[in-house]
Amino acid sequence: MTSEFDAPAKINLCLHVLGRRADGYHDLCMLMQKVSLADRISIALRDEPGVEVVCPGVPLAQGEQNIAGRAALAVLAAAGSNRGARIHVDKQIPVAAGLGGGSSDAATVLVGLNRMLGGPLSFDGLLGAGARLGADVPFFVYGRSAWAAGIGDHLRPAGPLPAVWYVLVNPGFAVSTAWVYGNLRLTSPVDVAKLPEFFDSPQDLAALLHNDLEQVTIGRYPQIAAIKEQLVALGALGALMSGSGPTVFGLFDDEALADAACATLKRRSQWRVFKVRPLEDFSPSSRPTC
Ligand SMILES: C[C@@](CO)(OP(=O)(O)O)[C@H](O)COP(=O)(O)OP(=O)(O)OC[C@H]1O[C@@H](n2ccc(N)nc2=O)[C@H](O)[C@@H]1O
Ligand SMILES: Nc1ncnc2c1ncn2[C@@H]1O[C@H](COP(=O)(O)OP(=O)(O)O)[C@@H](O)[C@H]1O
After folding, report:
1. pLDDT at 121
2. Same CATH fold, 165-279 and 2-157?
3. Would you give the DSSP letter of residue 98?
4. Which residue has the least CA distance to atom 13 on ligand 2?
5. Which of 108, 192, 206, 271 is most deeply buried (CB count within 10 A of its CB)?
6. What is the predicted ipTM?
7. What are the domain boundaries of the chain?
8. What atom in ligand 2 is closest to the CA of residue 175?
9. Ligand 2, pocket-test mutation among 95, 105, 140, most atoms within 8 A of CB
10. % of residues, the chain, pLDDT over 90
11. What kind of fold does domain 165-279 have according to CATH?
């Protein structure tokens, strides 16, 4: 049997770094949301042990080097299964882009393969297995928009967020998350208690936009600041780099303006440009194909 799943991208509506931990990771406060740009993943169980991962057209590791392969091995081990899996990833999310594509692929394989094997892992077990794969993986297991604390793995639900359109602009080069955190200069941390919890309008949400990692990535790649300026000039209520970058999103309250901004940016540049909607409540859906 083969099952198919969507693995959506995320954006960080805010990302505050609160401090550096003894293990080198950073404590964060983030508001995270999934969006409608997604990789398409199919998972097939096979009788031989081991995991094969193929991502046609994208130079990503196969098998256990790929984070989706490590996720599959975790579920097979939890099930005590001697079987293996073949995972096909139709990569739509730009790689090393600040959009969490690898983390989403991993979470989707955790949840999807767990379901295919009769649920050896509980929801908490899936969150724990996700945290062992990467700091952002639990968010993608979680299902809905969330405030993330700790290294990104302590999650609580966000209140309803306004219906908006985002225009994602990816300038086409990769940025290493480890490099960005490694070059971060810590500033005095935000008072988390003062961050707003409720957003009645797109303008309220635009007022939240903030990313402490921009100083590092924009310092090295000033074109990211130029993308932000262009999005605002084209009618975005605000624009922000997502995660460690380099992708920027513009927040629009008007779909026609978002469409026009996409068309203009595609005409003007070689950037990858996507209009997406927020996914308010998303859990990987299974669609058996045979
Ligand atoms: C910046 C964020 C924002 O959502 O996303 P991306 O830009 O990667 O999508 C995340 O914090 C990225 O999470 P993730 O990509 O899962 O991180 P990991 O694989 O666990 O770690 C990659 C590298 O980032 C550093 N790291 C990660 C998370 C964190 N809270 N502090 C860190 O210092 C680690 O030291 C590690 O070297
Ligand atoms: N399935 C996968 N999809 C994307 N990247 C992967 C995958 N498996 C391993 N990787 C590695 O993870 C790194 C981070 O990729 P990605 O998750 O796209 O970045 P980001 O978290 O910045 O959005 C890449 O450099 C890539 O080599």
Report:
1. 98
2. no
3. S
4. 96
5. 108
6. 0.98
7. 2-157, 165-279
8. 22
9. 95
10. 94
11. Alpha-Beta Plaits (3.30.70)
DSSP code for 286 = P
Helix boundaries (H) for the chain: 67-79, 101-116, 123-133, 137-142, 177-182, 202-208, 214-220, 223-233, 255-268
Q: Is 10 a catalytic residue?
A: yes
Given the residues 6, 39, 136, 212, the one annotated as active site: 136
- Which residue's C-alpha comes closest to atom 32 of ligand 1? 25
> Which candidate, 236, 249, 247, 184, places its Cα nearest to that of 16?
184
Mean pLDDT of 78-95: 97
| CA dist., res. 149 & res. 27, Å (int) | 7
Distance 228 CA to ligand 2 centre (A): 24
For range 127-143, the mean pLDDT: 97
Average pLDDT over residues 238-261: 98
User: Which residues lie with the beta carbon below 6 Å from any ligand 2 atom?
Assistant: 60-61, 66-68, 89, 95-103, 105, 177, 243-244
Q: What is the mean pLDDT of residues 82-108?
A: 98
- Amino acid 47: pLDDT: 96
Q: Which fold has domain 2-157?
A: Ribosomal Protein S5; domain 2 (3.30.230)
Based on the residue annotation, tell me whether 254 is a catalytic residue of this protein.
Answer: no
